[in-house]
Amino acid sequence: MGKTPFAINVEKGKDYYWCTCGKSATEPFCNGAHKGSGLSPKKFTATETKTLYFCGCKQTKGAPFCDGAHKSIK
Ligand code: FES
């Protein structure tokens, strides 16, 4: 799990599953590693093709996107 956001080029109409557990080897997206943790990924469907910043620290209040919360992590 990183502390800084991931810049991802998303495609309009495509679904993305943001990892909420922090165990994924394919961050910021789910790879199934959450099994047994009680957590599940958060689905996001892109409404346009553009670069978005997905949260890497899992502290964001605007999941799945970075809200700057990583700046307060020590
Ligand atoms: S691997 Fe983290 S939510 Fe699926």
Descriptive tags:
74 residues, mainly beta, binds FE2/S2 (inorganic) cluster
Describe the structure.
The radius of gyration is 12 Å and the shape is globular. The two termini are 14 Å apart. It is 0% helix and 24% strand. The protein is mostly beta strands and 74 residues long. It has one domain. The protein binds FE2/S2 (inorganic) cluster. FE2/S2 (inorganic) cluster binds at residues 19-21, 23-24, 30-34, 39, 41. Residues 19-21, 23-24, 30-34, 39, 41 line the site of FE2/S2 (inorganic) cluster.
Task: Report how far apart the termini are.
Answer: 14 Å
Provide the succession of SSEs.
EEEE
> Which structural class do the helices and strands define?
mainly beta
> How many helical stretches?
0
Work out the strand percent: 15-25%
Parts with pLDDT < 50 across at least 5 consecutive residues: none
**Strands, total number:** 4
- Count of discrete domains: 1
Mean pLDDT: 95
Helix content: under 10%
| Rg measurement, Å | 12 Å
Largest sheet: 2 strands, antiparallel
Strand order of the largest sheet: 1-4
Bound molecules: FE2/S2 (inorganic) cluster
The dominant shape is: globular
